[in-house]
Amino acid sequence: MGYVFVADDFTGASDTLATLARGGLRARLFRDMPSAEDLAGIDAWGVATHARSLGRDDMAALADRIGRGLAAFGPDFVHVKICSTFDSSAGIGNVALLAQGLAGALGIADIAVLAGQPSLGRYAVFGTLFARGPDGRVHRIDRHPVMAVHPVTPMHEADLARHLAALGLHGLHLVGRGQAGGAFPRLYDLLDQGDVASAGADLAATARPLVVMGASSVAEAWLATQPTRLQSPMPSPAITGPIFAFAGSRSSLTTAQVGAAEGLARLPISPGAMMEGGANRRAARDWALERLARGQDCLIYLTSDDQRAITPADLAQKTAAFVGGLYASASLGGLIVAGGDTSSAIVGVLAPAWLDYAGELCPGVPILQAQVQGAPLLMALKGGQMGGADFFPRAVAALRGA
């Protein structure tokens, strides 16, 4: 069958969807397991989950359920899409547990890991992960100005074999640049696109079912082994209504992007106020509805000054309910969301049957087309570390087809 991927959040899933679509495949992204009828005419498809915010028990249950659903399709190559920065912890968003759970449910013995994504400024040499930062420099991931201080899953280990072993995936065999792999599980170094193609060819040569963990570099590696296909022309997005943006990410990069979001009315709200649902949250809702009613683009963002013990999953769900209520009460032309957990929860509440690729915004952030409550909606979903300083005004322009 065609290419299948399971993503730990919607922002990463949308990037892989875009990679496959740009490769000429008819690709589609689902919120849950599709039916055979949903896949008619589709070459590649994926399921986007909210795994990044899950604890161990919920992660194990999700992996088992999705894996058993996938087994009915008999895939022999399953991409476990994770963030290119590999940020994860043993207790929250455990990507090793996700990959191993899927492999177990599918009866697939062999797991491979593609480290990094050179096309996105993520590199791995000698099993050590590096990433380009918002300053334009490349940093070892445990010294990265954003990822080393991630508010939920900070990266304190750059050696990916050690990092993944701490999550439960032991015994990774390092495959150096351009080399052939031996025993499984494998960890492939990636420094440039030649390494990506080489890893794809080496995996294809195994001729056995595989679960492959990594960023959209996994899709790039697989595409490098396939015949070239012509990309179908994309229709230009065209919307007329106002655009609402929500920043759930509290990374330093997203904070800088919010500060540079000229042209959008902006309003902060604390995580505590979002959780409590009291007067401050109602005031934020009224503030947004008033501006959207007069056609003004606006942005609400979470502050980082509330130190109460709030789990990422709970905060994402409260945020999703807030945004879902706005959508039901206003005529939105487009939606922009910053934050992986936030994006996954919001898409879950809006509940489109599927999402299609509708164009490119910036590396790692495509434009998505969905049908929500019978009406078309264009969306841009970004992870906390994606995009440049001008992300929000650029996203507004892109959704309007500028």
From TrEMBL:
GO terms for molecular function: ATP binding; kinase activity. Belongs to the four-carbon acid sugar kinase family. Residues 4-220 form the Four-carbon acid sugar kinase N-terminal domain. It comes from Frigidibacter albus. Residues 246-392 form the Four-carbon acid sugar kinase nucleotide binding domain. This is Four-carbon acid sugar kinase family protein. SUPFAM superfamilies: YgbK-like. Keywords: ATP-binding, Carbohydrate metabolism, Kinase, Nucleotide-binding, Transferase.
